[in-house]
Write a structure and sequence with these properties.
Elements (H helix, E strand, L loop, with lengths): L10 H13 L15 H16 L7 H24 L4 E3 L9 H8 L42 E2 L19 H18 L7 H7 L11 H11 L19 H4 L8 E5 L4 H10 L2 E5 L8 E6 L9 E10 L6 E6 L11 E5 L14 E5 L1
Helix pairs in contact: 1-3, 5-6, 5-7
């Protein structure tokens, strides 16, 4: 079963929605329709109304409300079926994105496009184990044969700014990952954790598309040429592209002098890099990830890279025994594990959802 894809609503449900929308304007106990309504539909409508109240959601018209209640119904069925399926190490839940189709969600909450080194591997990854492939040769500064800790969590070291939200109006995940990795590097090198400006990148980075997608590789290049990034407080996020404020863009709260690539299809190399600092990766948004609540995400997903995220650590889940990456996202702190997702590690090949195919980190 897949998340909601728009299709004609069942007549009974449309009748129900119309009746209940009309009934909401009548006194308690009154009826605006002679339709006999199914108990299951009534339960689903109550569930939608509770969700709508919790998230303070309103719609421009009754027609849109009808469309959204049908979307919420199909998504809720997918979520329930997934959680009842068994044999998986993660859970889904209705969240603020529950009334969006999968297409709508991907169009508004992603924003990565492949750099010159983008991947064209579209194989599907599930939970199968495999051998680690490749050799470390992109960055002479480290080797995957070096001793690395069994687990790393840069949040515990105070080196990670809490997750932020790119919002539904700006496809700028690339800017959030660029800022996040530089924030962490700045903390590691200087001892100061400063929240940096994504808006500066959206407005001023001439190599990328602002709210119309971008790549962290090009963004690192722009930051180097600009001499650094200013703070989020100095140049706050507006979730839309505007003219570059060149005066503020000349303020440099953190800088980098270069960036490195990690060899693709090599989780050992990625682990060695993450042991040194948080890194940028790109992923396919896998099945159900829109509704991820917690646990170790294990797909299914392929490698059509569309979203940029930050790997801030790795470890092993005590309950399931599954090895995982700790991923910082840009969908707000109400999503997932307070804005983070744990994704299955040591699956071989391109990694879970392609996360080993485009790995980079800034240097100073």
């Amino acid at each position: 079963m897949q998340p909601f894809v728009a299709r004609p609503s069942p007549p009974a449900l449309l009748a129900l929605c119309g009746a209940l929308l009309a009934a909401s304007l009548l006194p308690a106990g009154a009826s605006s329709s002679g339709e006999r309504l199914e108990v299951g539909d009534m339960v689903m409508m109550d569930r939608f109304r509770a969700w709508r109240a919790e998230h303070n959601r309103s719609y421009a018209s009754a027609e849109e409300a009808l469309q959204r209640v049908e979307g919420d119904r199909q998504n809720a069925e997918f979520i329930d079926a997934t959680n009842l399926r068994g044999g998986i190490t993660y859970q889904l839940a209705e969240n603020e994105f529950a009334d969006l189709t999968q297409e709508e969600f991907l169009a508004t909450y992603t924003g990565y496009y492949a750099d010159d080194f983008g991947a064209n591997d579209h194989s599907v990854i599930t939970t199968s184990a495999g051998d680690i492939e490749g050799a470390v040769d992109a960055d002479p500064g480290f080797s995957c044969s070096m001793d690395v800790p069994a687990s790393v969590d840069w949040r515990a070291q105070g080196a990670v700014v809490p997750p932020k939200s790119q919002s539904s109006t700006c496809s700028s995940c690339w800017a959030f990952v660029t800022a996040a990795t530089i924030e962490s590097l700045n903390k590691i090198k200087t001892g100061k954790l400063v929240s940096l400006s994504e808006q500066q990148l959206v407005d001023c980075d001439s190599y990328d598309g602002g709210c119309n997608m971008g790549s962290y590789g090009r963004a690192y290049k722009w930051v180097i040429e600009n001499g650094g990034l200013t703070t989020e407080a100095d140049y706050p996020y507006t979730a839309r592209r505007g003219p570059c404020n060149r005066a503020k863009s000349a303020h440099h709260a953190a800088k980098i002098t270069g960036f490195q690539k990690v060899p693709p299809r090599n989780e050992a190399a990625l682990q060695a890099a993450v042991a040194r600092q948080p890194v940028a990766v790109a992923i396919e948004v896998g099945s159900g990830m829109q509704f991820y609540k917690g646990g170790v995400y294990s797909g299914p997903c392929g490698t059509r890279l569309a979203h940029a995220v930050t790997v801030v650590g790795y470890g092993a889940d005590a309950a399931s025994g599954a090895n995982y990456w700790i991923i910082k996202n840009s969908w707000g702190q109400s999503w997932g594990e307070r804005g983070y997702i744990r994704m299955r590690r040591d699956v071989g090949g391109p990694g879970m959802c392609g996360l080993t195919l485009d790995v980079a980190y800034p240097t100073l």
